[in-house]
Design a protein that fits this description.
400 residues, alpha+beta, Cytochrome p450, 5-stranded mixed β-sheet, 3-stranded antiparallel β-sheet, 16 helices
């Protein structure tokens, strides 16, 4: 059967979609669960079960042809997120030990100290009546500092890396200049890490780059290109997504004061609330796969070689999986969600992102229990794959 979109056009780059994609997602789920955009040349799956099905069939929905929609700059070197098995499985096993809950949990004291120091500055400014943009003050620099320390980025270079990361992720195919800027930023990241790798080969230190240089797969050392790809992935995916999680969580709690009051009354609920932030906000809204064969779903045939967007953001608001899905419920029981993907490409940094968010919101609630968000001044990043605030003005007084 041919695809029928019911006259509905889904444009991931439209300003209205960027500001609030959820009405469009509902129409996709109800009217076009297998959506085809002939003009842009992509397909989309939007229901929870369909996205989960595709995520667990990497042989059919492969990552090796890129995970962004057409026209966007890719990583110039191979990395886990754009690899298929068997090489993906080999490299993932090599680095996964450093991202399990035990080694990540050991970093909590340093992470809490970092979060507290940044929140102290926000407290000082909001206490003086100032409106503070939480993105440059907290949600942006904290993940960049954590990942920067992990892979050896010099403190003086972290802000530049934040700019490069933003530029790589925030690409819009309707604005070619953003794609060109993304390619340039990707090249700059690679150039920086090429110098770090050369330096670590000459004089190893206690960081992840040195560990990757020393590591081997079946007795074979990693090539520089593979180390570069992993560093690139950590800087772009490991910081941007956590930044968006923190921003979306801050918005969710400000918009839902009763839910925030529950966390204030019982801080032990914060870790569970982070899962709801992930589901409700979905920092990664969708990633693309390429079909290696034709496949049928809901009576619609997706052809071989098709670019298929897996809409995690829509799946996490699917009423077929979650009761009253648009409501933020800090104590919701969540058995599964797709904010970190699923299957062989489940996010390696999930434990780290969860810990960062839990620590930040524990400290933020303790120090600034009544923050407000200026929704009129709130702006959103433009991207087909991630979602989060570009600016997040907060204060302790109510905005008119």
């Amino acid at each position: 059967m041919s695809v029928k979109n019911g006259g509905f056009a889904y444009d991931p780059y439209a300003p209205a979609t960027q500001a609030d994609p959820y009405p469009s997602y509902r129409r996709l789920r109800d009217d076009a669960p297998v959506y085809h955009d002939e003009r842009r040349g992509f397909w989309a799956l939007s229901r929870f079960d369909d996205v989960l099905w595709a995520a667990h069939d990497p042989a059919t929905f492969c990552s090796g042809e890129g995970i962004a929609l057409e026209g966007q700059a890719r990583s110039p070197f191979p990395n886990l997120i754009v690899m298929d098995d068997p090489r993906h499985a080999q490299l993932r096993k090599l680095v996964a030990r450093g991202f399990t809950s035990r080694p990540v949990g050991a970093s909590e004291p340093q992470l809490r100290e970092l979060a507290t120091s940044m929140i102290d500055e926000v407290v000082a400014r909001t206490s003086a009546g100032e409106t503070v943009d939480l993105v440059p003050a907290l949600t942006g620099p904290l993940p960049m500092t954590v990942v920067g320390d992990l892979i050896g980025v010099a403190p003086a270079d972290r802000e530049q890396f934040r700019i490069w990361s933003d530029t790589v992720v925030h690409q819009d195919v309707d604005r070619p200049e953003t794609v060109a800027a993304g390619r340039a930023a990707a090249g700059a990241v690679v150039g920086y890490f090429s110098e770090i790798i050369a330096a670590r080969r000459a004089a190893p230190t206690d960081d992840l780059v040195s560990a990757l240089i020393a590591a081997s797969v079946d007795g074979e050392r990693l090539a520089d290109e593979e180390i570069l790809g992993f560093c690139f992935l950590l800087i772009v995916a490991g910081t941007e997504t956590t930044t968006n999680l923190l921003g979306l969580g801050a918005i969710a709690l400000a918009m839902n004061p009763d839910e925030r009051a529950r966390l204030l009354a019982d801080p032990s609920l914060v870790a569970g609330a982070v899962e709801e932030m992930l589901r409700w906000g979905s920092p990664v809204q969708g990633l693309a796969r390429t079909t290696t064969r034709s496949v049928e779903r809901h009576g619609v045939t997706i052809p071989e070689g098709a670019k298929v967007q897996l809409l995690y953001g829509s799946a996490n608001r699917d009423e077929r999986e979650f009761p009253d899905p648009d409501r933020f419920d800090a104590t919701r029981t969540i058995e599964r969600h797709l904010a970190f993907g699923h299957g062989v490409h489940f996010c390696l940094g999930a434990a780290l992102a969860r810990l960062e968010a839990t620590v930040v919101f524990e400290e933020l609630l303790r120090r600034i229990p009544d923050w407000q968000v200026d929704t009129d001044a709130l702006t959103w990043i433009r991207s087909s794959s991630v979602r989060g605030p570009a600016t997040l003005p907060v204060a302790t007084q109510a905005f008119s």
